[in-house]
Amino acid sequence: MPWWSWLVIWTCLVLALIAVLVVGTWRLFRKAVSVFDELGTLAARAELLDAAVTKFDEQHAEIAILQKLSDVQGKRRHVREAAAARRDIRHTSRLARGRALTRFDANSRRWFHAE
Fold first, then answer.
1. Contact call for residues 45 and 52 (beta carbons, < 8 A)
2. pLDDT tens for each residue of 91-108
3. Residue 110: left (phi > 0), alpha (psi -120 to 50), or beta?
4. CA 81, 60, 66 angle in degrees (round to 5)?
5. Model pTM?
6. Contact 72, 64 (CB under 8 A)
7. What domain range includes position 97?
């Protein structure tokens, strides 16, 4: 084998190594960018959870046995009234949906396309 064939072989090997390194670096860079994007999303979700936890802690900070009876009864009454209001809203929306489904005027429908 002549001496220049070794030069060609090693040049091809070095170029292949550089190509593999460039492709690997590019893939690693893209994965790192996606990881940072997901970390941003995770941070936003963590902030929402922290806000919910602090709100929950503020609501349940006081033990009911250490409060006045009238305060506890007022809070309980408020919770029951809010639940009843939500229940009434759901009930009326279900009735309206049911009425819309069962009341159908066949005369108002256009059955055939007149061209």
1. no
2. 999 999 988 888 777 777
3. beta
4. 95
5. 0.41
6. yes
7. 63-102
